[in-house]
Amino acid sequence: MIQFDQVSKRYPTGQVGLEGVSFHINAGEMAFLTGHSGAGKSTLLKLVMLMERATHGQVRIAGRNLRSMGRGEIPAHRREIGVVFQNHQLLFDRSVFENVALPLQISGYSRVDIGKRVRAALDQVGLLDKEKLPPISLSGGEQQRVGIARAVVHKPKLLLADEPTGNLDPGLSAEIMTLFERFNQVGVTVLIASHDMALIERMRHRVLTLNQGRLVADG
Ligand SMILES: Nc1ncnc2c1ncn2[C@@H]1O[C@H](COP(=O)(O)OP(=O)(O)OP(=O)(O)O)[C@@H](O)[C@H]1O
């Protein structure tokens, strides 16, 4: 599903994001990406999303070499991928329902389809009874679950998360990770960037470790 072959990313400023990184995450796998601040975790996720392009090497997603993907194909590529951020980037002047519906509205789904899909996604994250509330009235953990519902409402085959538990206490962090595991159990490929080693070790999944842009451990 995610294949990196000798991938390097050098930013125009000269900063090295990644250096000669190779790995393969199979469809249906769940893995963590860890490493110090500045190790290259976000860079790696951005290459998968085509928010950045590799300077050297090949990135293949679901068999497609991203080098051959033109600008016009990027929106469709991103729709295949669900992304969860640390600060969940919710719109606070809209309800929970509207926040989750947003990606589907942009894609032109009908009202009926949107209703069905949004409620299915909210059900999966245990927030069906909060759909009418504004996100500001929810706890930090609940807001993060709205972010996850929005990421999965398109039913992506690949789910990426960048420090999804960064602002949460250990109990809530474990709950959020269990949610990701549940999506993985129904076949979604999951890659989570996190520096919470205690949590990662308890989860017993594959861990890719970056250090100054290099992949230094995989297991
Ligand atoms: N847009 C950019 N322009 C220039 N340099 C960048 C850019 N984005 C990242 N970098 C540099 O690339 C390197 C890797 O950064 P990246 O954000 O991928 O690390 P990270 O592991 O996600 O860090 P953190 O845990 O702090 O988010 C760093 O040296 C960073 O300064």
Report what the structure shows:
The chain is α/β, with parallel strands linked by helices. It has 2 domains: 1-80 and 157-169 and 184-219, P-loop containing nucleotide triphosphate hydrolases (Rossmann fold), CATH 3.40.50.300; 90-155, no CATH class. Helices cover 35% and strands 27% of the residues. The chain has helices at 41-49, 74-79, 96-106, 111-124, 140-152, 170-185, 197-203; strands at residues 2-10, 16-25, 30-35, 56-61, 64-65, 81-85, 158-162, 189-193, 206-211, 214-218. The model has no long low-confidence stretch (mean pLDDT 95). The protein binds adenosine-5'-triphosphate. Residues 11, 13, 15, 17, 35, 37-43 line the site of adenosine-5'-triphosphate.
Keywords:
6-stranded mixed β-sheet, single chain, Rossmann fold, binds adenosine-5'-triphosphate, 4-stranded antiparallel β-sheet, 219 residues, 2 domains, alpha/beta
Give a short synopsis of this structure:
This protein has seven helices and ten strands. With 219 residues, it is α/β, with parallel strands linked by helices.
CATH homologous superfamily (4th level) name of the largest domain: P-loop containing nucleotide triphosphate hydrolases
Q: What fraction of the residues are assigned to beta strands by DSSP?
A: 25-35%
- Helix fraction? 25-40%
Q: How many structural domains are formed by the residues?
A: 2
Distance between the termini: 17 Å
Q: Any idea what the shape is?
A: globular
Q: Can you tell me the CATH topology of the largest domain?
A: Rossmann fold
Number of strands: 10
What is the radius of gyration computed over CA atoms, rounded to a whole number of angstroms? 17 Å
Strand order of the largest sheet: 6-7-8-3-9-10
User: Number of helical runs?
Assistant: 7
Keywords: ATP-binding, Cell cycle, Cell division, Cell membrane, Membrane, Nucleotide-binding
Pfam families: ABC_tran
Protein name: Cell division ATP-binding protein FtsE
Subcellular location: Cell inner membrane; Cell membrane
